[in-house]
Amino acid sequence: MAKTKAEVNAELQRIFGKKTNGQAGDAVAGSPLWTVPSLADARTGQIGALRGEASVTIHTRQAQQLLTGRDATDGRNAVMGLMRFSNFLTQITAAAKQDDPWADWHLVQLEEALEAGEKNLKQQLEKLKRVLSENESMDVQVSESVKPMKVSVGFASSYSYWVARLIVQYDEVVRAVLTAKHVAMISQEASSQLLTEAGANIRRVFESTARYRFTGLTREDVVANNARIAEAEKRLDRKLDQVPADILDKTRRASYAPAIVSAVQVAGGGTATVAPDAGVAEIGSV
Prior knowledge:
- By secondary structure, the protein is mainly alpha-helical.
- The protein is 50% helix and 5% strand.
- It contains 10 helices and 3 strands, in the order ααβαααβαααααβ.
- It has helices spanning 5-16, 39-44, 61-68, 82-97, 101-133, 158-182, 188-210, 219-224, 227-236, 245-248, and strands spanning 55-58, 149-154, 282-285.
- Strands 1-2-3 form a 3-stranded antiparallel β-sheet.
- The chain is globular, with a radius of gyration of 25 Å.
- The two termini are 47 Å apart.
């Protein structure tokens, strides 16, 4: 049943502490949030860039490795982390902005992997919590680290934040699995399999970008089938995959794909290029 206006206002007041007269809280007298310019000043004034902070808190070393990555050692393979992933993503996003259809295609595949991974991890966590709550004679709380790690994150791409959120979800699954094993609700073998399945969701996301190689091409090159395609294939030493038609005509793009900037819009009037090693993400412990 639809709520009345009075009921909606009551809900807003409960959630946000909204005043009954519909006005937001008054500013503290003598402490203005900013200096108010005149209309003349506002016309020529420059607004600064937006800045913000974001952080994630993790409790397991498994999640820590996915954030930071791990170099290959004797007997252990390298693990791609969020920092290296963000480097790939910076290149792909910049190329997509410059009308590279292969870059656009990779962003679509990345988004599909993120959506599937988020769904899988959520379902896995729900099942684990149900297992932990089934024992009526024991109240089991999911374990937490006595010293969790809070990590500040800052990225150029929205997708890097999405992956950071996915790693936090993975961290929750790992905690639930290890808790269930510790209280003898699942076996060692079962816990190992669950951890492998959970980690696969992150690996699929990382792999979706690791396959990308900078082409330097645009949709115009593909439509014209010009010599630049052959040059790119020779440089990359491989045949380029055929771009799906709906990617090529831009009817399908990723939700957070950048706006495409044509060559004439690039500063200086020349065609933009992306260095193969462009961009480094910011991530550090706090």
